[in-house]
Amino acid sequence: MPVITFAHHKGGTGKTTACLNIAGFLNKTGKKVLIIDCDPQANATSGLGVKPGTAGCDIYDVFMSGTEGFKQISLSSAVLTTDTGPDLCPASLDLAGAEPYLYGREDHVSLLKTAIKTVAKKYDAVLVDTPPSMGQFLINGLVAADHTVVTMDTGPFALQGIESLRTIFSDIGEYTGKTVVPGMAIVTRGKIVHEEMSPAREVVDGLKRLLGIPGTADLERTRFEEIMAAMQQEFPLAYAIPYDPMVPEAQKRGIPISECAEDSPAAKEYAEITNVIGGWR
């Protein structure tokens, strides 16, 4: 049973989106999947149609279990069955309050790994969504992971993010003794669907080209190509998810894209990625 952690220290790179949609396609192939939401923002929880803070207990209680003054809560006690297939250990804003307590525990970097071992026989895969920060929950997710997937955006600072990630993973390795070597990178909103450009943008880009100036789409395409080239050099596997309006639509509906638009451009790419991840051990 592989534990797959989705990680990046920056927000908005598509960690949660990738985690949910890959889980959805894994579920469609008949695999029993658990998603663990380790982000106090609880977007993975909302993304599976569960309102944060409404569960009897959640990942906050699991992390605090065994801490003086808190009762013992097993991971299985915090797991919910969702309407869309994957099981979920939800998060809530309470999780932000757990971090100061964890630093005082000798086992603070391996709490999640220990908890996951108790449910290992129930699942074919465990997917961990981590917060965009360098804290205990990201560290726990990476220590627990058999495989790490990093997500990248196509913003102007994306290439700088590669060096930052390398440094962070090296620091975590020195801190925990766990070597972190990401096995895959996913560039979200990577392939620009030019036919969906607004008419006004097309006109402006056309005028720029007449003047010998690269249009906005040209610049974005060039940056995307540079980012993908860097990803392919840095990581064993690199994929790009095209812009697809069905991605935010699925998020609003609280379901993976596999449940509402499995033939859409982004869904087809997530399905291909899932075929690879489905063979991980």
3D architecture notes:
Helices cover about 40% and strands about 10% of the residues. With about 280 residues, it is of the alpha/beta class. It has an 8-stranded mixed β-sheet with strand order 3-4-2-5-1-6-7-8, sandwiched between helices. The longest helix has 19 residues, at about 160-175. The model has no long low-confidence stretch (mean pLDDT about 90).
CATH topology-level name = Rossmann fold
Structurally, the number of domains stands at 1
Number of helices: 11
| Spatial separation of the terminal alpha carbons | 6 Å
Give the percentage of residues in beta strands: 5-15%
Briefly note the structural class of the backbone.
alpha/beta
**Quick one: overall form?**
globular
Mean pLDDT: 88
CATH superfamily (homologous) name: P-loop containing nucleotide triphosphate hydrolases
Low-confidence stretches: none
Largest beta-sheet characterization: 8 strands, mixed
What gyration radius follows from the Cα positions, in whole Å? Answer: 20 Å
Helical residue percent band:
40-55%
The CATH architecture comes to: 3-Layer(aba) Sandwich
Give me the count of strands: 8
CATH class: Alpha Beta
Q: What is the helix/strand order?
A: EHEHHEEHHEHEHEHHEHH
